[in-house]
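TL;DR need structure tokens for one chain.
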Amino acid sequence: MTMHIGIDLGGTKIEIIALDDQGETLVRTRQPAPSHDYKATIDAICNLVKETEQQLGKTGTVGIGTPGALSRTIGLMKNAYATALNGKPFKDDLETALGRPIRLANDGNCFALSEAIDGAAAGAPVVFGVIIGTGCGGGVVVNGAPIEGANSIAGEWGHNALPWPEDNEREGFTYYKGGGSHIEAWLSGAALCHDHHLHSGEHLTTIEIAAAETAEREATMQRYERRMARALASVINVLDPHAIVLGGGLSNIDRLYHNVPAIWGEWIFSDQIETRLLRNKHGDSSGVRGAALLWKIG
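>> reply
TL;DR here they are.
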């Protein structure tokens, strides 16, 4: 029996999972990620793999889900909000430290892969996975395989401009890069809180806002839903996915799954819309599961 190990490397935590051939979880654990320390990150991953294999008494394949991607020209990491990785030969260094080949993919692609293989969108030919939380990540899976693209940035919808902007949507909450008009500046968790504060003066969490217990909070949610509908409509017009799966903290807002599809037709170039908007099946384990599954896609 082959064991597949997945690592989800985030800005604040490192998570590991071990799956058997049937996709069942053998071990899953997480620990804080070393902050701004590249060597300590490599060491932490190696120690987690070693401890997991010792616990289970066998070795496994290793897949890594990471923010950012490897540059196709120089082989160094780019676009990672875990900034200690940027400009580093992360894959090469990790393979040397582990003494074996690894597979590495963007964390958005890992999320989409998990949900496309045996998650909410199982069986769908074209799946767009969306992570809405600290930022707005994304990934594309076609016929069960993640698509990286010519520049290794397929699915990075959050760094496009918010489409069909209204007059008061020229400058949102700036978090990573791409300017205050990009999708992440309007749809991330911090952006939702920022927008609500601007309109109401209240400092609230996303959970409190989503409860929509006052007229001001309901208005904030309606603005958010229209922005998401426009952002996803632009993806549908280009990719035309069979399913869009939401992940990340804001994917737990129930009303999105009805309200967003109810209005996105205003901007989608089709007389009938078959694309489904789905809640993830595997929750916060989707990304790490997808990393492990990188060795099961050929």
